[in-house]
Amino acid sequence: MFLAVLLDSACVFRWVRQQAPGPQMNTDGQSTSRDLTQDVLLYKDGKLTVKQQVTSLDSESSILLFQYQLNEQLSWIMQTVLSGRSLFVGLPNGELLKGTKEGLTAVLEFAEEKLKINHVFVWFMKNRPDKLLLTRTFSSIAGDLRLMVYTIQQTHTSEE
Fold first, then answer.
1. Is 44 left (phi over 0), alpha (psi -120 to 50) or beta?
2. According to CATH, what is the number of the domain 2-149?
3. Three-state secondary structure string covering the chain
4. Which of the four, 61, 108, 118, 155, has the lowest number of CB atoms within 10 Å?
5. Taking CA 83 as the corner, what is the angle to CA 63 and CA 121, rounded to the nearest 5 degrees?
6. Which residues pair with 41 in a beta bridge?
7. Tens digits of per-residue pLDDT, 101-128?
8. pLDDT, average across residues 33-45
9. What predicted TM-score, i.e. pTM, was given to this entire model?
10. How far apart are CA 80 and CA 156, in angstroms?
């Protein structure tokens, strides 16, 4: 599995935030702002549950929801985009909660073993306080890790 970690890419990060906003906290054991009961269950084992959002659009990409149970009262939900043999993951700003490293590991292992993913693209900001921990987590799982640090400058054109 090839894993690319993209740091501080404003345009790509905005796309991921719109398409796959990353982990959302779920502290009451119920659904978050999304109604997860309308999603199709793909996998459930131990602490990891994987669902696919069903849309009326016929698309080559789909949204997968990974829910990882941190403890009896707390879980996080990560929304990702699956396109072909690539999985796109966006991590929000701020440090991840205790136990999230194991959740990320479970997500990446599921992607490789069950979905037969060839490429995983993970976006997070380069000024994260837990950047080293995330990089170590991803490099311990991935056979081939690439760090890409860049900023995309948007050009604005004004209508005359």
1. beta
2. 3.40.630.60
3. CEEEEEECCHHHHHHHHHHCCEEEEECCCCCCCCCHHHCEEEEEECCEEEEECCCCCCCCEEEEEEEEECCCCCEEEEEEEEECCEEEEECCCCCCCCCHHHHHHHHHHHHHHCCCCCEEEEEECCCCCCHHHHHHHHHHHCCEEEEEECCCCCCCCCCC
4. 155
5. 90
6. 51
7. 788 888 888 998 999 998 888 887 778 8
8. 72
9. 0.66
10. 29
Q: Are strands 22-26 and 40-45 parallel, antiparallel or unpaired?
A: unpaired
In the chain, what is the greatest distance between 2 CA atoms, to the nearest angstrom?
Answer: 59
Pull the structure tokens for residue 13: 């990060």
Residue type, 145: L
Token couple for 67: 């829910």
With CA atoms as reference, report the closest residue to 92 among 13, 3, 5.
Answer: 13
